[in-house]
């Protein structure tokens, strides 16, 4: 789906006009392509008081990744990324120093599509109040700062649970993800790393080599993009969709050089058939992406039983049953990964989507409770909550609401299926093993919800 | 199955023609001559061909000549077109029906002679019988000899047989011909006094058709009698059935064979397009106007063009296919013409030692033709 | 290349000499000349569409490519060099002289996959399987894709003979005069296209008319035909509902299942249809659009392989393609019905393999017409016919209806001529695999077999035996 407005405000006369009128001026996002450098320019690493050690460690890591690392703001220097290490912060007073030092350079010295990443610790009940205040304060800074960024730049935070060092695989994985263009449409999010689990891949470019991944609802849109992205990252992909979608499913399978499994995920034995197919054809099953979902919107007052039931059946009940069959199959034991597609509607709610909201919020709850069941095998389960993504589904939204929904985010545009796919790919990667039961939004910092 | 020359002992004067005449010209000539003969015959006069004859001699009123054309060769392109049209394999062996069309003009030329007693045009083909003794192939040089015999009265006019023999050149005029055809024609409404009405000439075929049928195909109410075509006689051509039976047949007093015709299960169906007559005329040279178009057929008393009898019989022969072997006898009796365009039901089936065939109207059950192919 | 002999646990891939054959025996040991076995890995077809329906603009190549691509997707064969692809169509444009190869080039298979076209009327699809499995058994290839496709919606239209001749003359003409002469011969009606006919060239009868004669000959009633048609629809619909076709069919052009399928049809509805075949014949007209296959568009493929290849590719093995037999009847001279070839081929096939009708768990007889199946069954039960025409001592046998076309056949699915063989082989192979897996322990490891009989124009039939692997 073409975003006409985005094109207009970035070309010729209409570009000037939009500038004069002060209209929102979204810019085309830069997205990742294989072979692209991790970050296209110098990265500034700053640390707060009590965080110097972590900041040094981060800087060292970035150097190991062959990045051009700077520790101070140099006049006239443009930066492609800024990492603000606030892990040791003890008091809100300590926030001003590092934050303001960065703030001064953001307007002129952060390159387009620049990246700001904070590293901090969660505020928990056991914390001293001042520490908790400072830690929670990072949340407010990051979310506000992200809304101020322009030119396709994003701000995201990594929250390291106690016991998780800045060198933990999932911190490294998240840092790379947020610094790179893979996270182009992820903005204003704080992602918690719960444990030091996970492993650093041999090849960051193809972290899924040797892994067998199943993607449901893969015939088109986001599912197809997920399949393609996982295949790009090295996975052998089994694409699943209902038999009626078999034609495009076959095309996706052939594009990703995987296999197509025509299957209704609401079938009682869907999970068993998925496991059987993956194991028989490809020898194993490591990753399941629950992407299949349906919409049956109606105001609750007008909601009929069948519309409610079908959404619950497909969007959440089927996933629960499949997960159960995965877990009891004895095959899903090699650092398994489940990623489930939630939705901003499941976080913020949406008019006419009580059924959908229930199912998608249910997904968020499900992964939270499923992930711990997988930790014994080095596995995890997480969710991705897309905001407004340009798909066949959103193309059917009437024009005006669609236009409003597109602009109602910090990036002032809709995302693309590949943005969701990149996030999924990160969460199923070996490095993401320490992210346990979390939900990561891919919404361009949508104005609604948390 | 050698056959005596059925000329009643009368010596024939052999007239060699320089080549096979064109049928178009023959028909044109025949048209004029036919008009004269027809007028003369219908009024009962004996003035035939412009000169009177006192009585018919041993030749039964037929010219005492045999036409001979030597060194006839088949044309490969025409043969191929013929084979395609009839559904024959494109073999170098000339289909028996193709030999017929090759030799037919020689017999026709005989019928356009001024002293031939019957008018050519409007003549109805009652029956045909071909004996193929051995294959005639493309490249063979052929001698074609034709004479007439068996002039006799028919219930509806006068019938005559044209005998055509084809020999491969150099095999000797006395040798058994490779191919021998006897075509029985009827001149409707032509009466010639003094003709034998009860005993046929020694003949390979009998009279088979009710002329009124042929001339008025749309009239179903009139009783039909195909006449003496009982197959027992056909299967034993050298033995005669009793005269009584023949008389009965011709007298139309018995139940006709066609009314007794019970349509069998067909084995095929022919959808005959309106241009089938023109297409067969193209490969056979038989441009008789009754086959060419509805207007030309109407001038001769037919509501629409009718299919060439030999076209339908030749298709049946083609359907028999290779099972007919190299030497066979192929007979047909025409009952009722096939109007064009038209669809007819067909049965070509092996019965004991022969293939029998029939063509009929699938809806009304009325017979168009029957015949058989008997491998030697 | 010669692959090592298979260490087969369920051998039976080899026909045994007829002399060694004992009716009713279980799977035998391959004879001394037995080559290795060839197996059916799976299949894929696109749903069959009614003529002028969902595939009205799709060409044979479009459909065959889609069917191959679905197969590739199902079995992960992207970029794979298959031993050989053999496929064909009955109604074929002259431009499609290399239909199979062109379809391969348009597919996700390796462009280095060889392919060839073949054609045996409605038996094209199964004959492709026969040829490729034979090559596999001989060790000439390790894998093969047998295919068939037909479009009656995109059937080739020929120009009239006169126009064709004039155009050819025109192309050969060197001078303006010669060119004018070539064109001058044309008449307006020569410009009318010549529609393709599927009538038998030697009899002029359509297939339906031929079957009408056979139907009358065997006294097959309208009611019996309608009952068979009803069963076909009900069984196919049930199989779809059960997900049986989930891994046999890939939708195409938005069509998810066979367009001709009428799950809600009934004997009452079928009884209301007017007879359409045999009206011009002097036989009772009992054949309707309901108990005859409609003109259909579609394509099918079957993946066949050696055991080694299947194992190396982690692919399942559904069934062994045991043996095949073709027959032809002399319908031109009315000796037997046009579509009765199967009645002759099957007894010969079974005799060679030492089997009887009772040795088969399922029997698939292509439903060209309901009456075709019923005439074949009637013939096999008819002592006189079996003695006189088949040279047997008595009736050949009876086919249990519960084993006949168990998931429906062409009456419900439709019949894109060359695609039917592939549909039946893949369906039968999957049924066998399921039946084998569901065998009661008390039955031991008995062979589970399918008999397939597909009649074809020209009095042809190709029949085959499959056995669960």
From TrEMBL, chain A:
InterPro entries: KR_dom (IPR057326), NAD(P)-bd_dom_sf (IPR036291), Sc_DH/Rdtase_CS (IPR020904), SDR (IPR050259), SDR_fam (IPR002347). Residues 211-387 form the Ketoreductase domain. It comes from the Bacteria. One of its GO terms (biological process) is monocarboxylic acid metabolic process. Gene3D superfamilies: NAD(P)-binding Rossmann-like Domain (3.40.50.720). Belongs to the short-chain dehydrogenases/reductases (SDR) family. This is 3-oxoacyl-ACP reductase.
UniProtKB/TrEMBL annotation, chain C:
It holds the Pfam family Thiolase_C. Residues 9-33 have a biased composition (Low complexity). This is Acetyl-CoA C-acetyltransferase. It comes from Cellulomonas fimi. One of its GO terms (cellular component) is cytosol. Residues 317-467 form the Thiolase C-terminal domain. Belongs to the thiolase-like superfamily. Thiolase family. The lineage of its organism: Bacteria, Bacillati, Actinomycetota, Actinomycetes, Micrococcales. Residues 39-307 form the Thiolase N-terminal domain. Residues 1-33 are annotated as: Disordered. PANTHER family: ACETYL-COA ACYLTRANSFERASE FADA2 (3-KETOACYL-COA THIOLASE) (BETA-KETOTHIOLASE)-RELATED. Transmembrane segments: none annotated. One of its GO terms (molecular function) is acetyl-CoA C-acetyltransferase activity. Its EC number is 2.3.1.9. It comes from the Bacteria. Keywords: Acyltransferase, Transferase.
């Amino acid at each position: 789906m073409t975003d006409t407005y985005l094109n207009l405000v970035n070309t010729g006369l209409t570009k000037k006009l939009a500038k004069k009128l002060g209209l929102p001026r979204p810019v085309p996002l830069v997205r990742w392509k294989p072979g692209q450098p991790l970050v296209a320019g110098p990265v500034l690493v700053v640390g707060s008081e009590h965080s110097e050690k972590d900041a040094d460690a981060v800087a060292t890591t970035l150097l190991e990744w062959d990045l051009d690392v700077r520790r101070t703001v140099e006049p006239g220097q443009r930066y492609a990324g800024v990492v603000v290490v606030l892990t040791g912060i003890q008091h809100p007073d300590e926030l001003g120093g590092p934050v303001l030092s960065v703030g001064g350079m953001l307007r002129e010295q952060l390159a387009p599509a620049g990246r700001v990443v904070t590293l901090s610790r969660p505020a928990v009940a056991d914390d001293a109040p001042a520490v908790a205040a400072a830690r929670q304060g990072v949340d407010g800074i990051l979310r506000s700062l992200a809304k101020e960024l322009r030119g396709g730049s994003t701000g995201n935070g990594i929250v390291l649970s106690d016991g998780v060092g800045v060198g933990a695989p999932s911190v490294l994985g998240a840092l790379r993800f947020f610094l790179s263009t893979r996270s182009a449409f992820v903005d204003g999010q704080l992602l918690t790393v719960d444990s030091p689990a996970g492993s650093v891949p041999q090849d960051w470019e193809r972290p899924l080599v040797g892994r067998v991944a199943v993607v449901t609802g893969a015939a088109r849109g986001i599912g197809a993009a997920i399949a393609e992205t996982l295949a790009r990252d090295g996975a052998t992909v089994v694409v699943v969709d209902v038999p009626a979608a078999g034609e495009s499913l076959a095309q996706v399978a052939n594009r990703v050089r995987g296999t197509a499994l025509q299957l209704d995920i609401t079938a009682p034995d869907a999970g068993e058939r998925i496991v059987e197919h993956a194991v028989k054809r490809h020898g194993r099953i490591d990753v399941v992406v629950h992407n299949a979902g349906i919409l049956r919107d109606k105001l609750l007052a007008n909601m009929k039983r069948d519309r409610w039931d079908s959404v619950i059946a497909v969007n959440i009940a089927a996933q629960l049953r499949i997960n159960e069959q995965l877990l009891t199959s004895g095959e899903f034991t090699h650092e398994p990964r489940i990623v489930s597609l939630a939705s901003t509607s499941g976080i913020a709610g949406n008019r006419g989507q009580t059924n959908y909201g229930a199912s998608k919020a249910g997904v968020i709850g499900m992964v939270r409770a499923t992930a711990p069941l997988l930790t014994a095998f080095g596995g995890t389960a997480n969710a991705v909550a897309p905001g407004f993504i340009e798909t066949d589904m959103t193309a059917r939204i009437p024009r005006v609401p669609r236009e409003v929904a597109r602009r109602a985010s910090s990036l002032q545009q809709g995302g693309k299926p590949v943005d969701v796919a990149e996030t999924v790919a990160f969460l199923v990667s070996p490095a993401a093993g320490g992210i346990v039961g979390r939900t990561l939004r891919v919404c361009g910092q949508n104005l609604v919800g948390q | 199955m050698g056959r005596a020359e059925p000329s009643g002992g009368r010596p024939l004067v052999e007239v060699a023609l320089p080549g096979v005449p064109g049928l178009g010209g023959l028909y044109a000539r025949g048209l004029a001559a036919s008009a004269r003969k027809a007028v003369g015959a219908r009024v009962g006069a004996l003035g035939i061909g412009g000169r009177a004859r006192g009585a018919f001699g041993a030749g039964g009123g037929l010219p005492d000549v045999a036409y001979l054309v030597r060194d006839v060769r088949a044309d490969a392109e025409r043969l191929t077109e013929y084979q395609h049209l009839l559904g024959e394999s494109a073999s170098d062996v000339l289909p028996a029906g193709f030999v017929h069309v090759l030799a037919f003009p020689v017999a026709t030329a005989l019928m356009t002679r001024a002293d031939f007693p019957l008018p050519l045009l409007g003549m109805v083909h009652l029956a045909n019988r071909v004996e193929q003794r051995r294959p005639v192939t493309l490249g063979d040089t052929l001698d074609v000899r034709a004479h007439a015999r068996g002039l006799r009265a028919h219930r509806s006019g006068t019938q005559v047989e044209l005998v055509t023999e084809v020999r491969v050149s150099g095999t000797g005029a006395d040798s058994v011909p490779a191919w021998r055809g006897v075509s029985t024609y009827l001149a409707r409404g032509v009466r010639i006094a003094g003709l034998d009405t009860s005993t046929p000439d020694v003949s390979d075929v009998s009279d088979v058709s009710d002329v009124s049928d042929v001339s008025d195909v749309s009239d179903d109410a009139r009783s039909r009698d195909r006449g003496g075509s009982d197959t027992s006689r056909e299967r034993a051509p050298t033995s005669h059935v009793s005269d009584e039976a023949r008389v009965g047949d011709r007298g139309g007093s018995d139940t006709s064979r066609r009314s007794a015709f019970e349509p069998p299960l067909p084995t095929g169906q022919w959808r005959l397009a309106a241009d089938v007559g023109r297409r067969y005329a193209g490969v056979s040279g038989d441009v008789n106007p009754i086959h060419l178009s509805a207007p030309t057929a109407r001038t001769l008393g037919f509501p629409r063009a009718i299919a060439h009898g030999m076209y339908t019989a030749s298709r049946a022969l083609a359907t028999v296919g290779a099972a007919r072997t190299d030497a066979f006898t192929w007979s047909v009796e025409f009952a009722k013409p096939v109007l064009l365009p038209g669809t007819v039901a067909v049965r070509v089936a092996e019965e004991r030692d022969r293939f029998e065939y029939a063509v009929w109207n699938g809806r009304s059950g009325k017979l168009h033709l029957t015949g058989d192919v008997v491998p030697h | 290349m010669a692959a090592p002999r298979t260490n087969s646990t369920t051998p039976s891939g080899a026909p045994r000499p007829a002399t060694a054959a004992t009716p009713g025996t279980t799977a035998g040991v391959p004879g001394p000349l037995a080559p290795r076995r060839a197996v059916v890995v799976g299949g894929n077809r696109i749903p069959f569409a009614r003529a002028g329906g969902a595939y009205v603009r799709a060409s044979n190549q479009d459909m065959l490519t889609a069917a191959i691509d679905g197969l590739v997707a199902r079995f992960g064969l992207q970029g794979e060099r298959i031993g050989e692809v053999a496929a064909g169509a009955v109604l074929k444009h002259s431009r499609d002289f290399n239909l199979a190869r062109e379809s391969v080039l348009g597919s996700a298979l390796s462009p280095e996959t060889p392919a060839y076209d073949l054609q045996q009327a409605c038996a094209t699809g199964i004959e492709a399987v026969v040829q490729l499995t034979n090559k596999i058994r001989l060790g000439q290839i390790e894998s093969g894709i047998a295919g068939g496709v037909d479009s009656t919606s995109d059937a080739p239209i020929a120009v009239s003979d006169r126009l064709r001749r004039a155009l050819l003359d025109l192309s050969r003409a060197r001078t303006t005069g010669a060119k004018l002469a070539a064109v001058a011969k044309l008449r307006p009606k020569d410009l009318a296209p010549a529609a393709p006919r599927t009538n038998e060239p030697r009899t002029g009868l359509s297939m339906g008319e031929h079957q009408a004669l056979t139907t009358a000959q065997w006294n097959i009633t309208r009611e019996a035909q309608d009952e068979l048609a009803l069963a076909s629809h009900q069984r196919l619909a049930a199989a779809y509902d059960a997900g049986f076709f989930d891994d046999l069919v890939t939708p195409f052009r938005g069509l998810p299942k066979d367009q001709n399928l009428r799950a809600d049809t009934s004997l009452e509805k079928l009884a209301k249809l007017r007879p359409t075949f045999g009206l011009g014949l002097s036989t009772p007209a009992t054949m309707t659009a309901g108990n005859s296959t409609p003109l259909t568009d579609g394509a099918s493929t079957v993946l066949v392989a050696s055991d080694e290849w299947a194992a190396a590719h982690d692919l399942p093995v559904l069934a062994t393609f045991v043996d095949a037999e073709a027959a032809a009847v002399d319908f031109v001279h009315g000796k037997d019905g046009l579509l009765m070839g199967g009645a002759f081929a099957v007894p010969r096939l079974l005799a060679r393999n030492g089997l009887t009708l009772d040795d088969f768990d399922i029997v698939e007889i292509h439903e060209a017409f309901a009456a075709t199946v019923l005439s074949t069954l009637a013939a096999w039960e008819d002592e006189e016919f079996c003695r006189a025409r088949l040279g047997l001592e008595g009736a050949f046998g009876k086919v249990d209806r519960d084993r006949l076309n168990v998931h429906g056949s062409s009456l419900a699915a439709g019949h894109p001529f060359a695609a039917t063989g592939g549909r039946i082989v893949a369906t039968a192979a999957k049924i066998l695999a399921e039946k084998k897996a569901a065998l009661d322990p008390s039955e031991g490891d008995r062979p589970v077999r399918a008999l397939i009989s597909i009649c074809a124009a020209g009095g042809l039939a190709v029949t085959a035996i499959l056995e669960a692997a």
